[in-house]
TrEMBL record:
Alphabetic keyword roster: DNA-binding, Transcription, Transcription regulation
Domain Cyclic nucleotide-binding, residue spans: 53-135
CDD domains per the UniProt record, alphabetical: CAP_ED (cd00038)
Classification lineage: unclassified sequences, metagenomes, ecological metagenomes
GO cellular component, one term: cytosol
Gene Ontology MF terms: DNA binding; DNA-binding transcription factor activity
Pfam family, one: cNMP_binding
Protein name: Nitrogen fixation regulation protein FixK
PROSITE patterns reported for this sequence: CNMP_BINDING_3
Amino acid sequence: MNALQQSSRNARCFPTPGIAIEPSSLWDGASADARGAVFAAGQAAGRFRAVMAGQLLYEHGSPMRHLYVLMSGAMQVSLTERCANEGRRERIVDLAVAGDVLGFADFAAGTHRADAMAIGDCRVYMIKPRAWNRIAARSFDVPSLAELAAYELRRALRHAMRLRLNAMSRLADFLLELNQKSGVDTPGTGPVLLPSGKTLANYLDLRHETLSRTFHKMESLACFRRAEPRVLYAVDWPLLRKIRATTWRRQV
């Protein structure tokens, strides 16, 4: 299966919401006016971009000129690594959803160190760092570049620590992070939509078979219900927090 076919499959399970930005921990406390100012700056500069499923937003080695505000859709950020058998392996280092800002991790280097590919159709605003800084200087609600750096560092550290956990704790922490971004931690909310098993296994550094067994085990513990392989219902968020805090033997 080629990348475009895989992305089309992911689009059905990790769908794009409307144009309104989804909640994200980066934007906690930001007013609607502040968000509107950032997006208006992108529109005024004519930097709105639609990225179709399977297309690259940016690629490894390209100049870092903009911050990318993901308005809708989802993207995977991946590195290509050499393997011991002299082959190459794609490693997904980030799964970005609506409300995330991409590209800032490469700000200091000046060039992108990874590829960002759309999972399903995406809408993106492209804003130059200086323009972002000017907007942040006018409004305390808009995160500054320093706050963006701190946010990216927290996300990177969280994922690094996640990969030191066992399979159940990794999956629990991933779902809890999705919850923080989408604000679904309340009874009676809609289903939780996931990327493909192949994409998620890569991101969590698990074998596909291990991830499948983990889903079945957690479903048997009543962590959630699955009417479809990539759609979760009745998620027990307090139970996921307990599982995340459990320090069991690491599984791969």
